[in-house]
Queue: 4 jobs
Job 1
Amino acid sequence: MDSLRDFLVTRGNYAMQQLSEIELQTKLVALNTKAKMPWVIKDGKLRKEFAFNDFKEAFAFMTKVAEVAEAMDHHPDWSNSYKRVTIELMTHDAQGITDLDFELAEKIENLLV
């Protein structure tokens, strides 16, 4: 059972597991059809860099993302440098990218509409 824990984690009422390479690519293509700038998979994380007009706009975006992430109980790894925000998503308990990461990425994209 311990080895199963490396691939499967229970969150809420459903189980999450790392997505296969085919699932990752399929979901990435679908996510990027809605995105102005693409999400990428880098170092085992779903990643995107966002550019804003100024720091205030970048920080306002981060505040909105924080509210969504808190509601989902799924928090990004991120950084901010002036008017740039970099977000990286992975499900730490599953040690990889799961459906939950793509769900959060889609909600983040919807904040930009």
Job 2
Amino acid sequence: MPSNRAPSNATPRPPAIRVGRLDTADRVRRELARVYKDARCRRIEAGDASKLASVLGLIVRIVETSDIERRLDALEARIADRPSRRAA
């Protein structure tokens, strides 16, 4: 009968890391602060923190760009809905 247990020489899996939603610049900022704090407290290696910070930097740029696009679309829609003010 096969066993469901991992072999005794298997590398143990690290605990799952929960990351909150990264859908706003503020949430990304908080995650970046957490990564920094973890690196300073030596819970993660500095090299790993650097890589995570780079990815978070990309994510925040994407979030900010998406927000600007959404706001610009809303402004353009408002302008398109306004009646023309030109004199006939």
Job 3
Amino acid sequence: MFPQDEWMQIWTPRNAGLYVRWFAIIVTEDSISGIPSTIADPGRACDGCRQSLPLSVVDSMRVYHQATLITREVRQTVIFAAILAIPIGLLVYLCEHPDENGKKTCLK
């Protein structure tokens, strides 16, 4: 069984390019089972919620760790902040520093 903070994307040919997302994954010799990510509270999920697929119908799988998701969100936030900060910083610089004629180039 995979740790609770890991989840897996599973693609099958019948999903036509889409995937299912499960956590609490158990892989056996011939099947894979897990609890769908659509369960609101993973800590309260029950074995009755568990779904299973034979490995013969699984096209591919990708395992994610919770830390990977947090790292990705932090990276996206930093990139977004940098994209905003560069033009704002340039505008502030232009507004505070006069050009060679002594005029400020800030729009008013």
Job 4
Amino acid sequence: MGFNSNNDYRYPYILNNHIVGFGDLVPTSTGGRLVMVTCSIFGTCITSLMVVTITNTLNMDNKERQAFLLLRRLASSKNMEKEGGKLISQIGVYGIRKGFISKDKKLRNLI
């Protein structure tokens, strides 16, 4: 791309900064380039406004955050109960195999 004047480098610079790109059809007049630069700036503004709106919509307020943390704690405590039950049963099986616990004793008597 040859630059004939100082103003020629500004158009591709602005388009690359606004992620519009060049494409196969490019405006050759100053007015056409001005329209494309204006459109790219407005497009960037609209995209940033959409990102801000979606982010604000998806952010949790204080009550939603508390409910989420409560659900996470409940899931964690259920998981701990399940893993604890597995551990206790493994201890009982180990004790029976090693002879620490007689087979007629119930495991619940140990707890």
